């Protein structure tokens, strides 16, 4: 059964009304889409958190507005209070299941690189990859295996493109992950050339000068 999140319409959009909504444990939101007129709503905060955990970052679910209308949506944007770590506002995007969309998918590294055991440093450079596909085909995440990477090796978008069903929007040359050589200690410039040289004496007076 598809995940359903209950929502209530919002009529009063003043700041005072929005604060009251948050105090009651609800999150102000808006639903919109290419064929959907923007509509302010609110959803229960705990139910919202459970829904996102259930379906994932790019998951689809049904938004039920007072039992009067249901919309197939995905979370498009989340505003979070950085101090309280609470949701401030949510954008729900109603999708057309028959039309392709572009979505950002998180990249997760898997495995242990041999180069790391040799002292190298695994550098994760690309954390999200853009894909274009039908809403139902959006992957929850893209897993990149690093278990064959030695020092100096890297994985680029071109290397994982054929393994995904969705069309990858990023350029082939973009590097997802690389194993960098350990930083070498660099001696101060000119150390060897000056080693053993006597220090220069500045403003030394002649022996006969008092």
Automatic annotation (TrEMBL):
Residues 186-198 have a biased composition (Acidic residues). Gene3D superfamilies: Ribosomal protein L25, beta domain (2.170.120.20), Ribosomal Protein L25, Chain P (2.40.240.10). Keywords: Ribonucleoprotein, Ribosomal protein, RNA-binding, rRNA-binding. One of its GO terms (molecular function) is structural constituent of ribosome. One of its GO terms (cellular component) is cytosolic large ribosomal subunit. InterPro entries: Rbsml_bL25/Gln-tRNA_synth_N, Ribosomal_bL25/Gln-tRNA_synth, Ribosomal_bL25_b-dom, Ribosomal_bL25_C, Ribosomal_bL25_long, Ribosomal_L25_dom, Ribosomal_uL5_bac-type. Residues 181-210 are annotated as: Disordered. Belongs to the bacterial ribosomal protein bL25 family. CTC subfamily. NCBIfam families: bL25_bact_ctc (TIGR00731), PRK05618.2-4 (NF004133). HAMAP family: Ribosomal_bL25_CTC. This is one of the proteins that binds to the 5S RNA in the ribosome where it forms part of the central protuberance. This is Large ribosomal subunit protein bL25. It comes from Halalkalibacter hemicellulosilyticusJCM 9152.
